[in-house]
UniProtKB/TrEMBL annotation:
It comes from Roseimaritima ulvae. Residues 33-316 form the DUF1559 domain. It holds the Pfam family SBP_bac_10. InterPro entries: DUF1559, N_methyl_site, Pilin-like, Pre_pil_HX9DG_C. This is DUF1559 domain-containing protein. It comes from the Bacteria.
Length: 335
């Protein structure tokens, strides 16, 4: 009787095949990840495009731009954000209809199938980048939904934001308790930042009240030295709150600059505000609130003309700050 030889892989052959597959996966995985990130970055750009269009529609309807922070005139001090005022132009009428700008955002609630829920805790998709790793509701101490974060901050200028004693505001396009217009952008709409990316749940220092005549910092170490009351996770977690550390951005430092400060033995990449808007009638708000993203190499921004651009983190700081002034008279160079 003739015996047939069995056709099968030897152990060596099997190991070779596994090794080849491993090499192929190693080669393909970065390409797949890069493609996914490119898609997320494109979606992020589309969000900013919608925000830019909403700004133009708001201005066309009201002949002015929304204030960055508008004090409701009551004791709460819960000043609404420009993002809240743009809701009707972002197909968010259900939320917009529930807002009473004469009252603070802290009392705004929506009746849902499970009961009353804070308006501030609702997710606004257009305000969130798909690359954000902390796209989660922020709960209060009892575990109830309290706030929802965001990834796009209004341009508050380079450093000085608001002086409550005399009402003067910074050089950005969106100002506290003040409604500017397109005619305020004498540098040109195409040469002026509107919104830029920020990361949610940013650590920050606040309310140090270090003085009313501060110079713009020249190093990140100066922020650590200034310090203040430290919050490890709550920056840019409140899309309703118009204060700069929650819904704004400044050009004190360039995109994705790490402002590394040690607190309690842990190093954090922080933002800083001298005094939160509405918390003092005398202390000026200065702020170093850095534009950050999860995109390699830079951040997405929308300019006042509605165009969306990717600004490299290597952009010249002078140019970056010039983009954040509405009437600085600077000549803006390309990236």
């Amino acid at each position: 009787m003739t015996l047939r030889s069995r056709q099968a892989f030897t152990l060596v052959e099997l190991l070779v095949v596994i090794a080849i597959i491993g090499v192929l996966v190693g080669l393909l995985l970065p390409a797949v990840q890069a493609a996914r990130e490119a898609a997320r970055r494109m979606s992020c750009s589309n969000n900013l495009k919608q925000i830019g269009l909403a700004i133009h529609n708001y201005e066309s309807s009201t002949t002015r731009l929304p204030a960055s922070w508008s004090h409701p005139g009551n004791a709460s001090g819960d000043g609404w954000s420009s993002q809240a005022r743009l809701l009707p132009y972002l197909e968010q009428m259900a939320l917009a209809d529930e807002i009473d700008f004469a009252a603070g955002y802290g009392v705004a609630q929506i009746n849902t199938s499970t009961g009353l829920q804070r308006l501030a805790s609702f997710r606004v998709p257009t305000y969130l980048c798909p690359s954000e790793v902390n796209d989660n509701v922020r709960n209060d101490s009892s575990g109830a939904p309290e706030h929802y974060p965001l990834n796009y901050g209004y341009n508050a200028g380079p450093f000085f934001v608001f002086n409550p004693a005399n009402g003067t505001t910074g050089e950005g396009v969106f100002a506290a308790n003040r409604y500017l217009g397109f005619n305020s952008c004498t540098d040109g709409l195409s040469q002026t930042l509107a919104f830029a990316e920020v990361k949610a749940y940013t650590p920050y220092f606040r309310d140090v009240a270090a003085g009313n005549s501060q110079s713009i910092p020249t190093s990140t170490a100066e922020i650590c030295a200034l310090g203040g009351s430290f919050k490890s996770t709550t920056g840019h977690t409140e899309w309703v709150d118009g204060r700069v550390h929650q819904t704004g951005v400044t050009s004190t430092f360039g995109p994705n600059t790490e402002v590394l400060c040690v607190q309690g033995g842990t190093t954090y990449d922080v933002d800083w505000t001298n005094m939160r808007e509405g918390r003092s009638t005398t202390d000026t708000t200065y702020a170093a609130v850095t534009s950050r993203s999860y995109h390699p190499g830079g951040v997405n921004v929308v300019l006042m003309d509605g165009s969306v651009q990717f600004k490299a983190e290597t952009i010249d700081l002078v140019t970056w700050r010039a983009l954040s002034t509405r009437a600085g008279g600077e000549v803006v160079r390309e990236n």
